[in-house]
Design goal:
By secondary structure, this protein is mainly alpha-helical. It is built from six helices and three strands, in the order αβααβααβα.
Length: 115
């Protein structure tokens, strides 16, 4: 709750039209960067869209954006998807078909077992 008694999540959901998923597939680890056009017009956008453009002046993942802005992951994904559709950010696609590094997975498992 905010100090005025309102919920901090009402406005982002209103901005996204109640949507919880972006129009296209968007992985939480996808990297996002504001475009030159996004930097030019971000001051004219609604606060949530402007915040994402400002945050992504340096490359950030969708998960980082959600955490930094304090919004649910679904809201961050919808806003990033909308901004990408408008050409205000670019989203680097993830390689969903990549084969995981078995040695890395074994080291992670070993580290977890040692906890």
């Amino acid at each position: 709750m905010n100090t005025d008694g309102s919920s901090p999540f009402v406005r982002p959901y209103a901005v996204t039209g109640g949507r919880t998923e972006s129009y296209g597939p968007l992985a939480i680890e996808a990297l996002v960067l504001t475009t030159a056009r996004g930097r030019e017009v971000m001051h004219t956008l609604v606060p949530e869209y402007e915040a994402v453009c400002r945050t992504c002046a340096e490359v950030k993942s969708v998960a980082e954006i959600a955490a930094l802005l304090g919004v649910p992951l679904g809201v961050a994904g919808v806003v990033v998807g909308d901004l990408a559709e408008y050409g205000l950010v670019v989203v680097e696609p993830t390689d969903g078909d990549a084969v995981p590094d078995i040695q890395l997975l074994e080291r992670v498992l070993s580290g977890l077992e040692n906890l």
